[in-house]
Amino acid sequence: MEIPAHVALWFLPFVLPICFYVAFTDLREMRITNQAVMALALVFIVVGPFLFPLPVYGWQLAQMIIVLVLGVLLNAGGAIGAGDAKFAAAAAPYIMIADLRVLLALFAANLLAAFVTHRLVKYTPLRQIAPGWKSWDMGWKFPMGLSLGGSLALYLILGTQFGS
């Protein structure tokens, strides 16, 4: 992986709780809060300059803007939710562009596992552990924060072990 291991290690304690919070609130309320998105972006903006050379830091921030524009377009087309688009944009600077293939494979596997797990629990007595969650009653809609937050967390965890 291209992300430096020390960078992933420094980001992980700040980002991991946000990822858990995003997954939880999306399961419970079917929404990713603006506060979580802003916290994720703010962590990168504050911590990033200490971990990256200025040109790399600038490019990583540019990724946030590029993904935000793409997310707004996808949201306008009804392909993804607004919270999903904002979270993806806030998560974008944490991903090294050379790791995009790794991230896409990780996201695909995570999405499949999260979807199957969510649907299995939805139709079993395990659902009673959290009976009030809105995601249980949303038909075909799926709480993507579970996969988005999980994928970013796993990317950073793997980056601590296999990063450059």
Number of strands: 0
Helix content: over 70%
Q: Major sheet: size, sense and barrel closure? A: none
Strand content: under 5%
Number of discrete helical segments: 6
Residue windows where pLDDT falls under 50 for at least 5 positions: none
Spatial gap, N to C terminus: 6 Å
Shape call: globular
The run of helices and strands is HHHHHH
Rg from alpha-carbon coordinates: 16 Å
**Total domain modules:** 1
Task: Return the structural class.
Answer: mainly alpha
Q: Indicate the mean pLDDT.
A: 94
What does this molecule look like?
Pfam families: Peptidase_A24 (PF01478). The longest helix is centred in the N-terminal third of the chain and has 25 residues, at 5-29. The protein contains six helices and no strands. With 164 residues, it is mainly alpha-helical. It has one domain.
What's the short story on this structure?
The chain is mostly helical and 164 residues long.
Descriptors:
Prepilin_IV_endopep_pep, mainly alpha, 6 helices, 164 residues
Write the layout of secondary structure elements.
Blueprint: H1 5-29, H2 34-51, H3 54-76, H4 82-91, H5 100-122, H6 145-162
